[in-house]
């Protein structure tokens, strides 16, 4: 297992530094409790502290979660360096419920490795096993539902993925030392109308909500979603059922607030995970920004808009269709085409909605397969080549619902996507970036990227951009987003500055306490 520097970790806890929330957990031997770095409790003596890279590792070692700082609300940060990228893919599959009924062996097969190798990677990067991670996530989500909603305990157990109420009660009692009802009596949760609930979605700051919405607003599909600087809303469809979600920022807080209205409580954890992916809540932005600070081109651009996130998507198939519609047309034109497709073939939303603009759910792959076999999309403005590409993609997705989650790597994803009619390198990289959450996806030939490079004083060819982008790995998707965000008015507000220091860490005093500010990682031997 990778070791954590105890001196650095202890200083982080002394200063309650929010930037490290989710990167390390402290376990206290005298109380047998583990906490987040921002826990308001008094810092224990160093000799009583043990540090773990994940909540699951601390829990597996026999420590109980703190009821004050609530470890279930810590950001679930991912590191995409080296073999950790495989662990990140495995975590996404676990969060999607792969281990609820499947085995670690089946999970490893989907990742293209042996289960022994996968267990070794989890032990190395997270300090525990895949099963322990799945169990901890299940318990943490149940704890959040107990605290933040008034769902009946039976519904909480189902939503968190427990097979029975007895298993749920036993797990909570084992971890927290009290029953679910006793835990709820200690909270001040407000009454909710079932099945509509409101939950916190934590992130590690900074979080640039404004920039995210400015990206999504012109791309919001009419009839399906509504984006504004105040909130994001959309209609959703799962298991043949309809619902809607609303996500908005909370001033001064390190979480987004999600309102979820869906009739099947068992899908709550799946919906929350999709929202986490959609709003890129697990990114370790501090680590990514520190990496970019070493680059003379990107460093001043990143400084202009800290906290940029990759705009994710609710559904990978929907995003892939949208990417095809966006080929060689403007954003506005692609949005219009997507709206026409949804209006024509989408299912009417089957419940009351908060906004009159939410009228449809996106058409399922099998619906588009049948429709496109009989209809001509040219009256909608969709050309025959693009209609053929959408039909081919829909056929693959309908035949294999796991198509978008079975890729072993970015290269594997791009190669297989490019084998589909009408999908080239640019489209495949764009799908990988936004739908597959591949942090190193990079559409090298994108005209917008080339124009942005010229705008900041570095005109390059496609080949030169590809060459220089190697310095931005393994987070080239974030580099692309920063370049796309370049705007003359934005540059005028803050002229480009010389690159920031490339030092891995620096010392300073905070409240009289020496603190090491890590720009890369808390782990010893971290490689950039």
What keyword list fits this structure?
528 residues, alpha+beta, Arc Repressor Mutant, subunit A, Endonuclease III, domain 1, 3 domains, five-stranded antiparallel β-sheet, 24 helices, 44% helix, globular, disordered C terminus
Describe this structure in words.
This protein is of the alpha+beta class and 528 residues long. The protein folds into 3 domains: 84-148 and 151-185, Homeodomain-like (Arc Repressor Mutant, subunit A, Orthogonal Bundle), CATH 1.10.10.60; 196-282 and 313-434, Hypothetical protein, domain 2 (Endonuclease III, domain 1); 295-306 and 442-493, no CATH class. It contains 24 helices and 13 strands. It has helices at residues 6-15, 55-60, 84-95, 98-101, 104-110, 115-126, 130-148, 153-160, 165-176, 180-185, 209-216, 268-278, 285-292, 298-304, 316-325, 331-345, 365-374, 384-399, 410-418, 425-434, 447-455, 462-468, 476-484, 488-493, and strands at residues 25-28, 33-35, 49-52, 64-65, 196-202, 225-227, 232-238, 241-249, 255-261, 347-348, 360-361, 505-510, 513-518. It has a 5-stranded antiparallel β-sheet. It has a 4-stranded mixed β-sheet with strand order 3-1-2-4. Strands 10-11 form a two-stranded antiparallel sheet.
Low-confidence stretches: 188-194, 493-528
Distance between the termini: 19 Å
Percent strand: 5-15%
The number of distinct β-strands equals 13
Structural class from helices and strands? alpha+beta
Shape: globular
CATH class of the largest domain: Mainly Alpha
Number of helices: 24
Q: Looking at this structure, what is the CATH superfamily of the largest domain?
A: Hypothetical protein, domain 2
Q: Output the radius of gyration.
A: 23 Å
Q: Mind telling me which CATH architecture of the largest domain this is?
A: Orthogonal Bundle
Can you tell me the CATH topology of the largest domain? Endonuclease III, domain 1
Q: Whole-number average pLDDT? A: 85
Helix content: 40-55%
Instruction: Profile the largest sheet.
Output: 5 strands, antiparallel
């Amino acid at each position: 297992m990778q070791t954590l520097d105890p001196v650095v970790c202890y200083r982080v806890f002394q200063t309650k530094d929010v930037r490290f929330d989710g990167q390390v957990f402290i376990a206290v031997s005298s109380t047998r409790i583990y906490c987040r770095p921002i826990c308001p409790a008094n810092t224990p003596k160093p000799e009583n502290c043990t540090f773990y890279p994940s909540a699951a590792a601390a829990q597996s070692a026999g420590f109980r979660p703190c009821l004050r700082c609530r470890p279930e609300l810590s950001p679930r940060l991912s590191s995409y360096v080296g073999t950790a990228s495989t662990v990140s893919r495995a975590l996404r599959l676990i969060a999607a419920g792969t281990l609820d009924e499947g085995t670690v062996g089946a999970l490893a097969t989907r990742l293209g490795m042996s289960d022994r190798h996968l267990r070794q990677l989890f032990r190395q990067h997270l300090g525990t096993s895949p099963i322990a991670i799945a169990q901890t996530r299940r318990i943490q989500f149940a704890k959040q539902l107990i605290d933040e909603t008034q769902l009946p305990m039976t519904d909480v157990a189902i939503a968190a993925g427990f097979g029975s109420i007895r298993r749920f009660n036993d797990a909570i009692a084992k971890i927290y030392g009290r029953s679910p009802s006793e835990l709820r009596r200690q909270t001040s949760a407000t009454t909710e109308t079932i099945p509509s609930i409101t939950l916190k979605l934590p992130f590690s700051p900074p979080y640039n909500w404004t920039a995210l919405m400015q990206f999504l607003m012109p791309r919001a599909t009419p009839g399906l979603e509504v984006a504004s600087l105040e909130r994001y809303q959309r209609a959703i469809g799962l298991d043949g059922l309809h619902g809607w979600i609303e996500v908005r920022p909370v001033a001064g807080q390190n979480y987004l607030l999600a309102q979820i209205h869906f009739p099947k409580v068992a899908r709550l954890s799946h919906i929350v995970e999709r929202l986490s992916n959609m709003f890129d809540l697990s990114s370790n932005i501090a680590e990514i920004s520190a990496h970019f600070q070493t680059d003379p081109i990107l460093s001043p651009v990143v400084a202009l808009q800290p906290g940029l996130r990759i705009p994710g998507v609710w559904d990978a198939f929907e995003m892939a269709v949208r990417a095809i519609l966006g080929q060689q047309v403007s954003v506005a034109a692609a949005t219009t085409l997507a709206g026409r497709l949804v209006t024509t073939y989408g299912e009417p939303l089957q419940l009351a909605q908060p906004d009159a603009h939410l009228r449809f759910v996106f058409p399922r792959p099998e619906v588009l397969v049948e429709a496109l076999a009989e209809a001509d999309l040219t009256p909608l403005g969709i050309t025959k080549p693009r209609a053929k590409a959408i039909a081919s993609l829909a056929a693959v997705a309908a035949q294999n619902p796991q198509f978008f989650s079975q890729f072993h790597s970015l290269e594997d994803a791009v190669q297989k996507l490019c084998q589909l009619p009408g999908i080239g390198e640019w489209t495949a990289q764009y799908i990988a970036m936004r739908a597959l959450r591949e942090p190193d996806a990079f559409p090298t030939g994108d005209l917008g990227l080339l124009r942005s490079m010229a705008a900041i004083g570095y005109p390059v060819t496609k080949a030169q951009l590809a060459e220089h982008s190697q310095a931005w790995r393994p987070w080239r998707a974030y580099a692309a987003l920063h370049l796309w965000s370049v705007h003359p008015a934005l540059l005028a507000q803050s002229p480009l500055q010389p690159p920031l220091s490339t030092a891995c860490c620096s010392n300073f005093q905070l409240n009289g306490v020496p603190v090491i500010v890590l720009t890369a990682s808390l782990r010893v031997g971290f490689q950039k």
